[in-house]
């Protein structure tokens, strides 16, 4: 283990203002750099509680809660499941958080008003997955391509009613190559990008997932390992903080469709799908349920479920716009509004 004491370099790496400078103690475990939980708590104003090795950790600063188990790759932020790029690790009586997760997950969510933005985002590119000859996932009742298009149209109608401009990558049952979807998005630099899908897995599968692009040098959630290509920066990595904030805001809303079933929250995950990797807009990909699951496929087949899913996505979009347009705001908006109305 190699321990470093870094003051300003680490602050600049995170984009943190020098007026909030503190000494961060970096240590390297394996090939990844970590910071101690003590530094994390001090910076984000979490009271550090007595810790017993091997036990769950609960933190609250009055604005947000964090729950996790050491040596795990999952953290719950305000009760919403997030998959980490690297596990939170325990060494002796100390807990360590990866530098990547600090800068590309925790800081954007805990301090959205500090995210650097090159423009004011005002519209949404909606991308219904698959289409035409590409059916995507299938069930006895229908196909992913049709469900995704219907959900996208419903989302577009909701956003337009709120005065938000919308562009669809397809509005008919046609095949649109991934390259073309990404190129289309690039024509709208002040928009965000939402790709809508439904899932399929051997054995059925269960739940909702939201994906944001993996940060440079970190693995995709479902791969479990690093590849050499993971160290190459992608166009989508330019908006890493906005990607994760958008994904968090949307995922925090869609999981509320199933409050009685916590297993429906499969988590906010990382991936390098082309529509995320090559996209210069803040981008997310949503998996709205498993068509390979008999119960979920029946649910997805009902228009009322697809309408509710579209409404939940829209609430997440409105919350995202509210957060990034609220410069200098000190308090953190409640992502889980008690009345379900969003911002």
From TrEMBL:
One of its GO terms (cellular component) is outer membrane-bounded periplasmic space. Pfam families: Amidase_3. It is an enzyme of class 3 (hydrolase). Residues 182-318 form the MurNAc-LAA domain. Keywords: Hydrolase. It catalyses: Hydrolyzes the link between N-acetylmuramoyl residues and L-amino acid residues in certain cell-wall glycopeptides. InterPro entries: MurNAc-LAA_cat, N-acetylmuramoyl_amidase_3. It comes from the Bacteria. The keyword Hydrolase applies. CDD domains: MurNAc-LAA. GO terms for biological process: peptidoglycan catabolic process. Its EC number is 3.5.1.28. GO terms for molecular function: N-acetylmuramoyl-L-alanine amidase activity. This is N-acetylmuramoyl-L-alanine amidase.
